[in-house]
Amino acid sequence: AFAPAADFGSHAAADWQGLLESYRSEYPEAAAELDRRLAVGLPDGWRDALPRFHPGDGPIATRSASGVTLNALKDLIPELAGGSADLTGSNNTLLEGEGDYAAGSPTRHFRFGVREHAMAAAMNGLALSGLFRPYGGTFLCFLDYLKPSLRLAALMELRAIYVFTHDSVFLGEDGPTHQPIEHLAHLRAVPGLVVVRPADANETAAAWALALETPGPCALVLTRQKLPVLEATADGALEGVSRGAYVVSDCAGEPDLILIATGSEVAPTLEAASELEAEGHAVRVVSMPSWEAFAAQSQEYRDEVLPPGVRRRLAVEAAATLGWERWTGTEGDVLGLDRFGASAPYGDLVENLGINAAAIADRARQLLAG
Questions:
Q1: Phi and psi at residue 230, to the nearest 5°
Q2: Average of pLDDT values for 202-219?
Q3: Residue 269 in contact with residue 284, Cβ under 8 Å?
Q4: CATH number of the domain that residue 114 is part of
Q5: Does 320 reside within a domain?
Q6: How many domains does the chain contain in total?
Q7: Enclosing H/E stretch for 110
Q8: Catalytic site residue 116?
Q9: What φ, ψ does residue 151 adopt, rounded to 5°?
Q10: What is the reported pLDDT for 1?
Q11: pTM score, two decimals?
Q12: Bridge partners (DSSP) listed for residue 57
């Protein structure tokens, strides 16, 4: 009964192969590009296009640095295609010079509409084709609406890139309905998903590099507010982010305390370290943008960044503290937010929620005195 179907399929496959070979002969450059994409390779020299930022450039939100990076890469990596769930201006996901995708206008920029789940599902389809590296943007708090498609992307090891902006309570007056708390823990619990929360603009460019080289889905977690460009990242971010964690400030000899932070909390953690060092404490500061990338490193490298003998460790992150004991150990501590946020200006939130340099230094002193 199935013989005719098999025979039809065999002839159809042969016809298709013949058409492909004639295409290769007539359009050799396009055929080479097709082969490159299907081989999941990236074009030569793309890393050279990654932007570099300097402290003198002034503060820049990581969502803005993401947009700069995306547009620096778009011409070199033509398979980049995506958009936002109706938050293009906020997510900084626009490909400059590209029109919107529509019938008769096959561009690479999509207006997905207020449909996070549909956006993530469309990204899965694009990734399954093998011809595109899809990305999609929304607020981190709206992760809840697209989770089923993200989970399937992780299950199928699809190369989808999620651009989650407005990553913490520090987004301000939108209040607790839009302020993520549990969402980082939620993302980190998904097997096969690499989560990256960069500390500044250089770490953001490096986060895009990591996302493009990750053989599966990757979530970029980015700020609304502007952050200073850190001294240590101009030369260290590209390798450091690829390894998930690296030292951004160190002491002479073995540290008394290791401060570990992600994203917007790295800068105030560095301030707190300076205060503690002035008091005579030996302090190391580690930026840990990606737990998953760090966990994938050799034990030797992990021990180099977080020496097992240094058990006084304080992790700082403006999010739920769940899971941090993996890196702080049983004798460490975590300064985070196991509560919902509030509607208030950024400065008031920093002061009242206790995620600032003074609060970090105080918690560190408690740990050192213990």
A1: -85, 150
A2: 98
A3: no
A4: 3.40.50.970
A5: yes
A6: 3
A7: strand 109-111
A8: yes
A9: -60, -40
A10: 66
A11: 0.95
A12: none
